[in-house]
Each structure stands twice: as structure tokens, then as C-alpha cells.
């Protein structure tokens, strides 16, 4: 049985993948207590001290505001520590599976969905960090699997704390009667994290390269939020009152980060649609009856 070192082990994606695949691999769960990513030297020492076959590198600071306000810190966390991990993987002959992002496309002026071969362009520090990481991996780990994630969604469960996502945001707005803004001038794919976790073993055997992890979605973020609210059973009046259009954000330029996941589909790894994923989440957590 192969051993996987997973960084950011307490995070949503890492904990979900490890829980679903706990009997398929031996897991070394690296958290901030082992090494803080703001200290690349400490990260390198810890990773070098471990014995593993694969490294699943999920840890990062993806908070846009923090990265914009502290670009040097973001670079240490997101880029320099990734390079330290990549170098150790190269030395050990261990395969690296790296979590990149749709945000490498946030500077594009044309519309998605984007395939892996599309030129990347980012206007945010976080997106630029991930672009730099991808280049580093091509240098140090030519056998790496780079997964560009869409916005991953789901709800929390014992031992797995979901990151903020459109389903939880809409539930908070509707259930707590809290008017909430959702972006009109933006389209992005949103994907149930369970789909990724259940297909992770197959992902570890993929040929080296970049792959897009995304369920198809044609709606704007605002339209997507209204869809979630409707599936929750909210009335049209409640949706109009609590799911509000944010017309100001990105009014200067429409953002389209949608990813084309057909490359993964060629290997039998599929993700479906946004509507299917939302229905599955609500059904899995008891908010919607099985059909």
C-alpha cells in the first residue's frame, strides 16, 4: 500500500480525500503544527524527514485580501514552500499531486470554459502565485499531476469542515433571513468535493500533466445562488428578499473562470453539472428527499 503525505491535512479538500480513501493508502497528515508554510525551510525539513510515495499538496493561503495585502507572505506560503516540497519530492522520487486553481484564468478577457491548453493570465496575487508554482513543478517534478480546482462545495460533517461555498452561503442567507449579495458579472464552475474524493485513487495514476476539476455550469454566481435557494424550497418572495444581485463587483470586466473538464473525462473521471451537484449535496445532508 502506498503512503501519501498530505499537506493542509485539516483543510476541507485534504480531510475529505483522506476520509474517503483512508483504507486505500497510508496517510501522513501534515498540519501547521508540523511546519508552517510561511517558513519554507521548516517545511523542507519536515517533508524530508518523512517516508512517502506521493505528496498531495493542498495547503495554501487562498484568501484574496490577505494575499493582496501581504504579497511577500503569500509568496512564501504559496510559492516558496511549494518549491521546497517539489525539490524534496524530486530527491525522493516521490510523485507530487498539486492543487492549483481556476484563478489562473482571472485575467482573461475572453470567455470560458477554458481547456488546459488555454493561455493563463491572472490579475490577483493568489492567481499569479499558482501560475508560478505550476512553472516550478514543470522544472522539478515533470511527473507531477496538477489539478486546477473550480470552487469546491459541500457541507461540514464530523471531522471534515467545509470551506465557505455557494451552498452554505445561500443556506445562511435563507435560513437566517440574512440578505446576501451574489456576483452578477461572474461565471465559475462549482463542484461537489465528494466527486473529487471518490475518484482520487484514479487521479493518482493519471499521466503527468494539468487537469481541470469542474462540474459544468452556465449560470452566473447570482443565478447559481438563486438555483440553490430554489432547491432548498425557498419561495420566490424569500429568494428576492435574501438572494441579492451584486451589480457593482466586476462591473468593469466580466469574470469567467469556468473550466473545461473533458480531459479528465477521457480517463473516466467525470464531474457532471452544477445542478446535479447541488441536488446531491442537499440529498446527502438531508435537505432534499431522494427521488
What does this structure look like?
The protein has 291 residues and is of the alpha/beta class. It has 2 domains: 3-152 and 190-213, Rossmann fold, CATH 3.40.50; 159-188 and 217-256 and 273-284. Helix content is 40%, strand content 17%. It has helices spanning 12-20, 40-49, 64-69, 71-92, 125-140, 166-175, 193-198, 200-203, 221-231, 236-242, 262-265, 274-284; strands at residues 3-7, 26-30, 54-57, 95-101, 145-149, 151-153, 180-183, 186-187, 190-192, 209-213, 243-246, 255-256. The chain has a 6-stranded parallel sheet. Helix 5 (125-140) links the parallel strand 4 (95-101) and strand 5 (145-149). It is globular. The model has no long low-confidence stretch (mean pLDDT 97).
Secondary structure elements and pairings:
Layout: E1 3-7, H1 12-20, E2 26-30, H2 40-49, E3 54-57, H3 64-69, H4 71-92, E4 95-101, H5 125-140, E5 145-149, E6 151-153, H6 166-175, E7 180-183, E8 186-187, E9 190-192, H7 193-198, H8 200-203, E10 209-213, H9 221-231, H10 236-242, E11 243-246, E12 255-256, H11 262-265, H12 274-284
Parallel strand pairs: 1-2, 1-3, 3-4, 4-5, 5-10, 6-9, 7-11, 8-12
Helix pairs in contact: 2-4, 4-5, 6-9, 9-12
Amino acid at each position: 500500500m502506498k503512503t501519501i503525505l498530505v499537506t493542509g491535512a485539516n483543510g476541507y479538500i485534504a480531510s475529505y480525500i483522506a476520509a474517503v480513501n483512508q483504507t486505500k493508502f497510508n496517510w501522513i497528515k501534515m498540519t501547521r503544527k508540523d511546519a508552517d508554510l510561511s517558513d519554507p525551510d521548516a517545511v523542507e525539513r519536515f517533508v524530508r524527514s518523512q517516508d512517502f510515495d506521493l505528496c498531495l499538496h493542498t495547503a495554501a493561503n487562498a484568501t484574496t485580501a490577505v494575499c493582496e495585502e501581504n504579497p511577500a507572505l503569500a509568496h512564501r506560503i504559496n510559492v516558496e514552500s511549494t518549491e521546497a516540497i517539489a525539490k524534496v519530492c524530486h530527491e525522493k522520487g516521490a510523485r507530487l499531486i498539486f492543487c492549483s486553481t481556476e484563478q489562473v484564468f482571472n485575467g482573461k478577457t475572453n470567455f470560458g470554459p477554458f481547456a488546459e491548453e488555454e493561455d493563463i493570465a491572472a490579475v490577483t496575487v493568489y492567481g499569479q502565485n499558482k501560475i508560478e508554482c505550476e512553472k516550478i513543478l514543470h522544472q522539478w517534478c515533470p511527473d507531477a499531476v496538477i489539478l486546477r480546482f473550480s470552487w469546491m462545495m459541500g457541507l461540514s460533517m464530523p471531522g471534515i469542515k467545509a470551506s465557505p461555498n455557494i451552498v452554505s452561503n445561500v443556506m445562511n442567507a435563507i435560513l437566517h433571513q440574512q440578505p446576501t449579495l451574489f456576483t452578477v458579472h461572474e461565471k465559475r464552475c462549482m463542484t461537489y468535493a465528494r466527486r473529487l474524493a471518490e475518484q482520487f485513487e484514479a487521479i493518482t495514476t493519471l499521466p503527468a500533466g494539468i487537469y481541470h476539476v469542474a462540474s459544468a455550469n452556465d449560470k452566473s454566481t447570482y443565478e447559481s445562488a438563486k438555483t440553490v435557494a430554489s432547491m432548498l424550497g425557498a419561495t420566490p418572495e424569500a429568494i428576492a428578499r435574501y438572494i441579492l444581485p451584486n451589480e457593482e463587483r466586476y462591473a468593469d470586466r466580466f469574470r469567467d473562470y469556468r473550466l473545461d473538464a473533458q480531459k479528465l473525462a477521457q480517463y473516466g473521471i467525470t464531474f457532471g453539472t452544477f445542478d446535479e451537484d447541488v441536488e446531491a449535496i442537499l440529498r446527502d445532508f438531508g435537505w432534499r428527499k431522494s427521488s
